[in-house]
Amino acid sequence: MQRRLSLWFALQTLIGLSLLCAAVYGVTAWNFQQKSQEELDQQARLAFHLLNEPGPGSDALSLQHKLEDFLSSHRNVSLSIEREGRRVFHAAPAAEGAWIWAEYQEVLKGGGGRVEVHIGLDATQDARLLRRLRWTLAFAVVLGTLLVSLTGALLVRHGLQPLRQLAERTSRITPNVPSVPIEALEFDQELRPWIAQFNVLVARLEQAYSQSKAFNADVAHELRTPLANLIASAEVELARPRSSQDMHLLLLSNLEEIRRMSGIVADMLFLSRADRGEFLRTRQPACLSEQACAVLEFHEASLEDAGLRGVVVGEATAALDVSLVRRALSNLVGNAIRYAAKDSTIVVSIRSADDGAEIAVENEGPPIAPQALDRLFERFYRGTAARDGSEQHHGLGLAIVDAIARMHGGRTFAHSQGPVTRIGFTISASIDEATAAAQ
Q1: Which of 34, 142, 203, 437 sits at 20 to 30 Å (Cα–Cα) from 115?
Q2: pTM score of the predicted model
Q3: Which residues have CB under 8 Å from 184's CB, separation 6+?
Q4: Which CATH code fits 210-275?
């Protein structure tokens, strides 16, 4: 960029100086031409004055003497006179040079007839001055272009110094070295918006890189246990002869572990799409209370086995993806069923808010510690791993709820006060806002 700017600067200087010098030369040449024309006019008036001068010496010989005396005092003038098509006087140019000629006609007084006067003016000195001026201006253009280009290149180099400093600062950022945000105030005002955007980009990349590392570590940890179980059970069964029934039971057990791992992989793929900032392409108006009733109906058998009841309180309509919202509600209800006290009621509360709708699932059970509330929506996090059946769940249910909420432009929340735990999420736009946006 420095070379390109310097070349453009030199080209601009060359064109500018050339136009300026051409204007100076043109004005000077025009002034010389005007001066020569005025002098020719003056000499023509003098010549006609001599031709019209009365007196005894008005014959041809006397007139010739007058004109010769006139030319002797004006050596830079040449004169030729014709009267009625006949040349009566002619004085050739005294020397070679750049002569300017002009023709004048006038009727002499006293019946002298029409006279044509051809006057030449020696402009050699003016031509010499113009030639010197032309070379001087050309030299000035070349020298001025070189000087201005040199100083321009130095100024461009100095002006681009902040960019080189910025490039040097950014080159220090590597995956193995934690990056420090570049201080925008250290650079010029024009670079500060770019630096701010670069800092935001680097922060996002670091966050994504950290999430990827943590996610891969968690996935490896979660898949290691079922894979180890599969390998161990297969080695035990293959250590000695087994009946077909035993092998059938082994395959059923392995199939259950494989399905569990398949569920982990499917949930991982879903969360990876949410992490890329994927939003919903289609959102249809739907009644949230109807979706909640459908989810409770799906979990009806689990509720009966756990001795629980489920109710829906409130109503709201929002633009949403029905299948995803049902999945989030199902995860919340399933989580509440696992931890709710027997003979209690699981409440699905729905209400409209200024910025959308809010859905929450409440259950009575053991309280959740404040430090655990902040981590409920983390991947592979289990609040109470010692509870019965916790090994059957891989800790991605609430993380999926958080992803679905973000895909709807909302957020998740969790509260635990006494025996009541309330976990839910919001949806960004109500039906009125969705309809207005569609229109």
Answers
A1: 34
A2: 0.53
A3: 191, 192, 195, 196, 199
A4: 1.10.287
